[in-house]
């Protein structure tokens, strides 16, 4: 496969990561040098390529191809502009709506991995890439396939700051270690620091097992804080699965939407009642005005009849006087 190296964008103990161009498409090349790796490390490198080949999810970095060239394993993957770690250091304390969107994306990615019986084992901000504000889980080199969802492992892996308590205690573990690590990641997104620290590995391990994280920035809702601390439950059995956490978020959103609808409906109902009352008052006013007009018309008619009666009486008196005068004149003659 022919490709053009554009830039070196990363380097690790296993190899180098390049931004490359293949035809007109920008991709990432993870070049793993096998020469100085132990057999176990070589198997881990092959396993990453094998695992990525089987996965297809919008919140998992896409795998394109792999090839073995002499003593190097080349893995070609989807190119992403940034990673969550660098982004948060440049843009601390993102808006809560954004945190919820990212949380849902990562939970959906983990739910998919776990449904494929894969435990990532190294979830951390550096291994979460960003592409057009969509988060994608990457670096599956530490991933482990479990034959069944009940199978437990005892191999200690992961980045110390994001290790679950059961790993510190050297206890068997399952996919709940990814849930713990996700809780650490979301905590980091809100706070800019991991939930636990220490001056050395021993103190860090002690704090993870025995201490509680510092309170989360009060700008974030109790609902978001509650979810983070559920993910950080020190007892793995009490941590939700990715599917359970997603369902809880959806249920809460549905309840919130219903509450908002009821509130809006109540306001509109009150407005309708108010408009109805206003309409009744307007009708009463119109009826009163019409009644008064009718009374005036009736009174005017009565006055007119009275005047006619009085005029008729006056006319009769004048006529009677004229008759009397006429008869008097006739009598004199």
TrEMBL record:
<dbReference type="GO" id="GO:0005524">
    <property type="term" value="F:ATP binding"/>
</dbReference>
<keyword id="KW-0808">Transferase</keyword>
<keyword id="KW-0067">ATP-binding</keyword>
<keyword id="KW-0547">Nucleotide-binding</keyword>
<dbReference type="InterPro" id="IPR051131">
    <property type="entry name" value="NEK_Ser/Thr_kinase_NIMA"/>
</dbReference>
<dbReference type="Pfam" id="PF00069">
    <property type="entry name" value="Pkinase"/>
</dbReference>
<keyword id="KW-0723">Serine/threonine-protein kinase</keyword>
<feature type="domain" description="Protein kinase">
    <location>
        <begin position="3"/>
        <end position="262"/>
    </location>
</feature>
<dbReference type="InterPro" id="IPR011009">
    <property type="entry name" value="Kinase-like_dom_sf"/>
</dbReference>
<dbReference type="InterPro" id="IPR008271">
    <property type="entry name" value="Ser/Thr_kinase_AS"/>
</dbReference>
<dbReference type="GO" id="GO:0004674">
    <property type="term" value="F:protein serine/threonine kinase activity"/>
</dbReference>
<keyword id="KW-0418">Kinase</keyword>
<dbReference type="InterPro" id="IPR000719">
    <property type="entry name" value="Prot_kinase_dom"/>
</dbReference>
<protein>
    <recommendedName>
        <fullName>non-specific serine/threonine protein kinase</fullName>
        <ecNumber>2.7.11.1</ecNumber>
    </recommendedName>
</protein>
């Amino acid at each position: 496969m022919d490709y053009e190296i554009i830039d070196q964008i990363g380097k690790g103990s296993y190899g180098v990561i390049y931004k490359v161009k293949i035809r007109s498409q920008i991709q990432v090349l993870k070049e793993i040098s096998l020469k100085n790796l132990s057999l176990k490390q070589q198997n881990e490198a092959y396993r990453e390529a094998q695992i990525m080949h089987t996965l297809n999810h919008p919140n998992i970095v896409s795998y394109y191809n792999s090839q073995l060239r002499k003593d190097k394993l080349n893995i070609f993957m989807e190119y992403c502009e940034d990673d969550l770690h660098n982004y948060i250091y440049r843009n601390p304390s993102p808006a809560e709506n954004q945190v919820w969107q990212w949380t849902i994306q990562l939970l959906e990615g983990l739910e998919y991995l776990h449904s494929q019986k894969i435990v990532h084992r190294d979830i951390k901000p550096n291994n979460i890439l960003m592409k057009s504000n969509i988060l994608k889980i990457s670096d599956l080199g530490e991933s482990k396939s479990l034959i069944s969802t009940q199978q437990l492992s005892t191999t200690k892996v992961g980045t110390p700051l994001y290790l679950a308590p059961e790993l510190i205690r050297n206890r068997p573990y399952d996919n709940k270690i990814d849930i713990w690590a996700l809780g650490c990641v979301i905590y980091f997104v809100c706070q800019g620091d991991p939930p636990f620290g220490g001056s050395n590995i021993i103190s860090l391990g002690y704090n993870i097992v025995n201490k509680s994280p510092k309170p989360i920035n009060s700008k974030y809702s109790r609902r978001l804080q509650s979810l983070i601390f559920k993910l950080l439950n020190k007892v793995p059995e009490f941590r939700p699965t990715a599917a359970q956490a997603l369902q809880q978020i959806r249920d809460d959103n549905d309840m919130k939407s219903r509450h908002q609808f009821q509130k809006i409906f109540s306001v509109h109902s009150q407005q309708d009642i108010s408009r109805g009352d206003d309409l009744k008052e307007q009708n009463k006013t119109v009826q009163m005005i019409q009644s008064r007009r009718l009374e005036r018309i009736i009174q005017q008619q009565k006055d007119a009849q009275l005047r006619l009666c009085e005029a008729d009486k006056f006319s009769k008196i004048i006529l009677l006087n004229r008759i009397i005068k006429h008869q008097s004149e006739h009598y004199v003659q």
